Q: What sequence folds into this?
């Protein structure tokens, strides 16, 4: 009886593991397809950089590419930052501000503390242009707090603090 129960347990384990493995394989294939599509969109966006009239379309392509990439993918953060810059150049300043903050949040969530601090300062610049002082202070404070991270070198900390002082 014990052998029969242990055989049943093994069989049950295999039966339960198979769908999980299939889901994992499907998720990996979907992610690979999404990343490949994101790379295509990024190439299309870069091709539009030559014409300022196309900046908004290029920004949208970078934004779409970012949405296809997994949360911890650092290229996703670059796509969000580039989309924000292009929206800013195209005159869509509210969208630019929103995406730059999202890029900072994504960098922080991915553990890229230096990129997060720099991106929050970029966002603060966009908010300053819009005369939104309260948001500027919040973003500068976030960036300043991140300089206390042991993941930021003394040189990078000095650079961030210099940017903060120069903008004051």
A:
């Amino acid at each position: 009886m014990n052998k029969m129960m242990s055989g049943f347990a093994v069989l049950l384990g295999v039966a339960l593991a198979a769908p999980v493995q299939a889901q994992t394989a499907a998720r990996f294939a979907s992610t690979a397809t999404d990343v490949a599509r994101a790379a295509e969109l990024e190439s299309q966006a870069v091709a539009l950089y030559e014409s300022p009239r196309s900046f908004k379309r290029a920004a949208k392509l970078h934004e779409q590419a970012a949405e296809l990439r997994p949360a911890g993918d650092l290229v996703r953060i670059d796509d969000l930052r580039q989309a924000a810059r292009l929206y800013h150049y195209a005159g869509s300043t509210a969208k630019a501000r929103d995406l730059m903050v999202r890029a900072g949040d994504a960098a922080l969530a991915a553990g890229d503390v230096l990129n997060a601090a720099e991106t929050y300062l970029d966002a603060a610049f966009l908010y300053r242009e819009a005369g939104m002082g309260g948001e500027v202070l919040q973003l500068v404070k976030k960036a300043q707090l991140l300089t206390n991270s042991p993941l930021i070198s003394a040189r990078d900390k000095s650079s961030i603090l210099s940017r903060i002082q120069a903008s004051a």
